[in-house]
Design brief:
1 helix; mainly alpha; elongated
Length: about 70
Amino acid sequence: MGTSLTPEFWERFVALLVPAMGLTCVLAAAFDSLAVRLLRRRAPEAPPQAPQRLARKDHRHRTSVHC
């Protein structure tokens, strides 16, 4: 049974597709911002620290360099 897609069908299809796409984008942006906000609350910001240098107490293990 062959049915053709009429212009009326395409008008309704587009009339439903465009708002559905807009709603999808708005909801995705809202949920993304909510997820970022939750992640920032859970991980408190630690003050940046300078890298720690290892203190060497004994330098006798180094070999001398002669040019």
